[in-house]
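Hey there, shall we discuss this one?
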Amino acid sequence: MAQQAYMTETDDGGSGLEPRGNRLRRLFDRLLGGRRGDPRIWRRGILVAACAVLLAVIMVLHSHIPNAVGNLGSLTETFLPWLGLLVPVLLVLALVRRSATALIAVLLPSVVWLNLFGGQLSDKTAAGGDLTVATHNVNADNPDPAGTARDVAASGADVLALEELTEEAVPTYEKALASTYRYHSVQGTVGVWSKYPLTGVRGVDLDMGWTRAMRATVTAPAGQVAVYVAHLPSVRVKMEAGFTARQRDRSADFLGEAIAREPLRNVVLLGDLNGTMNDRALNAVTAQMRSTQGAAGNGFGFSWPASFPMARIDQIMVKGLKPESSWTLPRTGSDHLPIAARVRVTTGG
């Protein structure tokens, strides 16, 4: 009985088993809505195919998209992973158009996206590490700074960085975090809280006229770690000017120079950089440091906006230190999500 289900009439009126290859070809033809040998399945959907090729080219050559007009290159790189959402749209259009050409073309952006971001889909977290760090842009308009402080302290971080601190809110954060962190320092609008002693504390010049970055040495049980906390200038998307990021880009260069001069082997950067690891404007920083999320995270780790995260503009980057795990923390009263990472202090050459 099972065999009869696969019987088909042969050319000479007999019956026999239909080869599997024939069944697959018939399925492909049926999917495209045409009959075998119909040349229209190759002529249809040329526009869909062209869009698929263009999408693949944009993703491959994103670093060559010029920033001269509205910082279009940086804007594209900020939301680069989301271009992958266009692939299923193109796939559906290819099927609707019943176009073999378009179906094959859609493979191009699919392969490119997987090559760029496929690694982010796997869980790279590992056990171990001897220092937990966290960072959070608390938002100057946070309606519950005390609650936010308690939430991030509950993460178990040994070192906590906070950005966008207002003069009025600093005492609230200091009081709420005092029982967890014995040592802390606030420089301008950024601060660091630590369970271990802090030395060498100073502001870091971002060429802004006020302090939005700092540096400190944390003497942890496993060794000394240079901790940088930074909040780079905000960027805006304006109809008349595009992606405005000139001050952010200049400050990133200043920050990169400061980190390059750091004499300690183990360095961690915590903060809101208002840019992603893909943004070429942050090369002065990203070229010399690793993202803990990229190296030891699970997923993209988007941190902004908190209501529907679309980009990871808050960063934990390391040099010398070995990332073991990286994750986002639950939402607080801020418009950013806090992020955390577990790292291993390295020694030797």
